[in-house]
Design a protein that fits this description.
Blueprint: H1 2-12, H2 23-32, H3 38-50, H4 56-61, H5 64-71, H6 77-93, H7 103-111, H8 118-128, H9 138-146, H10 153-163, H11 168-186, H12 195-200, H13 208-211
The structure holds iron/sulfur cluster.
Iron/sulfur cluster (SF4) is lined by residues 142-143, 146, 185-186, 190-191, 194, 196-197.
Length: 227
């Protein structure tokens, strides 16, 4: 897997991801980004900031309709309003500080919040709480499959975490590189120009079939299915 990282890094460089001013902003963004484009999330975050709602207490206490208006551009805005207000209540209850919670406690508590599945919880753990949790999303699954690595969420996560140094900044950049590459190549069906398949052929540590017996199910494809 480190060869994959090195290949992507040499092609695309440092991604400096996630662009946010606070852990709370990352967490709100992690909810808003479900099933939408990042550009829409940026607009919604700007709206929330302008209206003073990018703080746990103010967002938790805001009128539902007002929040809906600010995040409408991200789609599923009624559902997402409920979810960001739940996240806001969680941060508020924890004095806007999740930095001292043990990783597994934090993960468990995040997963208890409506709308937070494995991918969202791990995005918050990695990008907001700076914990070494590798995020598995649909892009990661697709690219992994192309290099012969299959598994469910936990299996893929374990594979990444065991194959690369345990380093938060590396995890952050690796995930961001995968997303960027998938948008620029996989989504545009540029498979004949694929940098990954060409460079990884013959360098994978394990024969594909022996890694995981579980195949990727379509129900794992979106965050909402975990919710
Ligand atoms: S560009 Fe095509 S072959 Fe390459 S990783 Fe993406 S989907 Fe797979």
């Amino acid at each position: 897997m480190i060869q994959l990282y090195e290949k992507l890094f040499s092609e695309l460089g440092d991604q400096n991801w996630w662009p946010a001013e606070t852990p709370f902003e990352v967490s709100v963004g992690a909810i808003l980004t479900q099933q939408t484009r990042w550009e829409s999330v940026e607009r919604a975050i700007t709206n929330l900031r302008k209206t003073g709602l990018l703080q746990p207490e103010s967002l938790a206490m805001a009128k539902r309709e007002i929040v809906e208006e600010q995040i409408r551009c991200t789609g599923f805005y009624r559902q997402k309003t409920e979810r960001v207000q739940e996240i806001a209540r969680y941060f508020s209850k924890n004095s806007n500080n999740i930095s001292k919670k043990p990783t597994e406690t934090l993960r468990k508590e995040l997963l208890e919040i409506k709308g937070v599945g494995d991918e969202t919880a791990d995005s918050i753990l990695l990008y907001a709480a700076e914990r070494p949790k590798f995020v598995i999303d649909a892009y990661t699954r697709r690219i992994s499959e192309c290099i012969g690595i299959r598994g469910n969420y936990k299996e893929l996560q374990q594979h990444f975490e065991e194959s690369i140094p345990r380093d938060v900044e590396l995890y952050k950049n690796f995930h961001a590189l995968i997303v960027r590459y998938a948008k620029e190549y996989c989504n545009k069906k540029r498979c004949d120009e694929c940098l990954i398949q060409n460079s990884m052929n013959g360098t994978n540590d394990h024969p594909p079939e022996t890694i995981f017996k579980t195949t990727i199910s379509s129900s794992d494809e979106t965050e909402s299915s975990n919710d």
